[in-house]
Structures are given as C-alpha cells and as structure tokens.
Amino acid sequence: MAFPIEYEYLYHYDVYPKVVRKDVETEITIRPLGGRTCFFPGTDYEMTVKGITGGMPAYFPVSSQYQSVTVCPDADGVIRFRHTFCIEQEYMLDIAYTDHRGRSTKERFYIYCVDGDLVGRYPYIGDLHTHTTYSDGNQNPEVVCANYRKAGYDFLAITDHRRYYPSLEAMRFYEKLPVGLRVLPGEEVHLPKAFGQFIDPHTIAIGGEYSVNALIERDDVDNIPTDDASRSLHGQCPPVMDQAAYEKTIQETMDSMEIPEGVDRVPAAGLKWAYDEIRRAGGLAIFPHPYWIHDVFHVPAGLHDYMVESRYFDAFEVLGGENYYEQNGFQTVRYYEDQRRGFRYPVVGSTDSHNSNPTNRNALICSTMVFAQTDTCADILGAIRGFRSVAVDTISKEFRLVGELRLVQYACFLLRHYFPLHDELCYEEGLQMKKYVTGDAQEKAEALRVLNVIHGRVDAMRTRYFDFPQEGTAEA
Known about the structure:
Blueprint: H1 9-12, E1 13-16, E2 19-21, E3 26-32, E4 45-51, E5 66-71, E6 79-83, E7 89-98, E8 104-114, E9 122-127, H2 141-150, E10 155-157, H3 165-174, E11 182-184, E12 186-189, E13 203-206, H4 228-231, H5 243-255, H6 265-280, E14 284-287, E15 293-294, E16 296-297, H7 301-310, E17 315-319, H8 325-340, E18 347-349, E19 366-372, H9 377-385, E20 389-393, E21 400-402, H10 405-417, H11 419-438, H12 441-454, H13 457-465
Parallel strand pairs: 2-8, 9-10, 10-11, 14-17, 17-18
Antiparallel strand pairs: 1-3, 3-6, 4-5, 4-7, 7-8, 9-19, 12-13, 13-14, 15-16, 19-20, 20-21
Helix pairs in contact: 2-11, 5-6, 11-12
C-alpha cells in the first residue's frame, strides 16, 4: 500500500463498472481519458471477451471462453455496450484496431464477474494491529490514522499494548471530521501474571465494547485512566477484579479445560479466558504473530496446536509486521496445513506497526481486505468472521495474498485494477487529515475546507466501479 498503477490502460481509459454481477446483462463503458485515444465514432470494432479460466481455443476448444462482440463508439468517442458475464472470474476485453498511424495494435481492458453472495459486498482494506506513542509507537493516534489513510487504508484499529483508550481517542477525534477512514476500537491484550507465572502470548481485541486489559487491577502499567469513559465504548463495563478474583477466574477456567500434556496450563487458561472475554465484549479475538522471533518463537508449538484444534480465537493474523521469512512464511504454511487437516479459520494481515511513516521499512507491509456491505465495525468484523477476508503481503513490490482461492483471485484483480485508483483519492484525504492534526489554526481551517470539498469521493468511485444494486432502488 499504496499500489502503483501498473496497467497502462488505467491511465488512458476509464472502464466502469469494473465488477459486474453474474448472469446479469450489464452496460460496460470505456471512456477515453485524453492523450492516446484510438477509437473513431461510428466505426465498428471487434472485441474479444475472454474468461481467464477457460484456456486458449487452439488448445482447449471445449473449455475456452472466447466470445466475439462488435462495439461502436458513440459520437463522444465513448464505447458503451451491453454484455452478460456467466462465470465468476476475471475477463479480458481485447479490441484490435488500426491506429492513426496505420499500425495494427490492441487494447486490453479488464472486468471481474462475481456470484450472488459477493454482490453488495465491497472491498475495504485495513490494518487491525498498530501502535502509537501511548505504548511503544512513534506517532500519536491521530497522526497514525492520517498516515494510513494517505496510504490507501479504509479502516484502522489502534491496538496499543495493554491500552484500549488510545483507540477511543482516535475514534472520537475523527468522528467529528468529514473523512472516509473508519477507526475501530482495539487493544493488544497482555494479561498480568497469575500464580506468579507469565501469561503469554499477546492477543488482539478489535471492536469490543470495553477493555479486557482494564478488567484487572494491575501494577505493571503506568498512567492508565480508570474512568468508564476510558475503559469502554459507551461508558459501561464489568467491574474491575483484584488479583485474588483474577486468579480465581483463571483457576476456574483452567479446571474447565482439557489441556494436553506438554502445554503450559496457566498461559493456556489465560488465553482462553481473554478470547472468551473479548467475545463477551462483542469484539473479534485475533491470534497474532506466533512465529515472531522473540529470542525464540513467540508461541510454543504445542500451545499453537492446542489453540488451533480448540478454535479459541476468531481469526488468525497470518501476516504480520516483520520482513524476515520465518514469521509470515511459516504462518502461511501453517494456515494451509491446518486447512488440509480440517481446521478452518478466518485470516487477517496486519503491520503491527510502531512507526507509520513511510521511511519505516515495516510501516505498510501487510493489510487485510474484507468484503463487506459497509465499512461499519459490525460489518467489517462480520465479514472476517464469515470467512470473507484475505491477508495482503506487500513486503516486496510484487504483493502476495493469503486466503481461500476464490477470494484471493478476486482480491488480486482488485489490487491491480481498482485499488491504485482508490489509493490516489485516499492520498489527498490523508494529507489533509495530517495537516488538520498537526497544523496551526490557519492550516487546520484550510485542511477542514478541503476535507469538506473532497469528502465522499471514494464512496462515489466505489459505487461507479461496482455494479451492485444501491439502497432504495428496485433491484436492492
């Protein structure tokens, strides 16, 4: 993130919609953007519509999916034609023509067709694991949000170590501004010792109504506010436990579990209690970075197996914030092997960023793409729980995707043909967000003016490029 425009046609033509519904006749528009325009009004051109999964006709005459369509530009030079796409996949639209210099050439455009369960679900990209100056990060929550929006993110969770209230601060700050970034409540849960024993690994909580970190009296964290407004989203949360009550809870949890031999009982019970409490709060419980090398791997192999086989967590952070192979590479292999063994769980990708500036090598190396009806917290978390998410690895120039094949294929198309245009719009909004956060009174006023002018552009582009029924229409 952000994704550069790699396909030349995106500079020269606006093609919309880019995503169409299966078995629904759709009008496709190919509009020249100036410069190298090639189509002459009133002239018939032969277009070949090719489904990417069928093979070439010369080699696979039975399965190939080539269709010939005649198209003719209107008086304004815009090609408009109607077509029905019948298989969920990527399609290429090839037009062969003779240019103004008399040379034979070809233009290629791209469309994706989706089946009914993805209709009405839009792609949103976000990060569910970030840090700020409230723990061990380098920027305050408001600047972190601005930097991520500038890089093309649609949603973001602040997840400071042991702290929930920084995410609330960011949410409440941006709720008053005309911005398109959705800020989610979150925290990285570190439980205090129980019976003198550490409880690790860490846990990511997203979207909870209250803080799990703040449910226990603790002396291992400084300067944490204790008022309900800082401990909860709506000012309501369970009472705080003292150490004795906390250890009693861990013991009761431990007694209810069948923990295999060779797995540390106290950490296993602490993790189960934390994941259950996150869900009681209405949040999403994420199992993060087991192959992070913290002297050795962060999560012992036996505990990892037990957590997967018991499905204590809601989603697995299959891609995280390190660029050595062991973390993301081993986690990816583990995910696919678990799938093969019959253990299916949703995946997310997150940066675990402690410095959101682009000078940081690890600032923007992973993300999560969800397919949700809206960008509300409930819909984003519902999409992940419903196995409609893909983890995106942008450590190298060539992105990599982790998830179920159908969604990975769709996400790959979107990263190449939709998100580069989406990110251009997000960049300006992020710049103005940061100016509003860090500027003087005059700069704040100017930033707010610009934000009001550009607000809604990403939503309008989304509506333009996805041929989904809109709320209030007969189709919807």
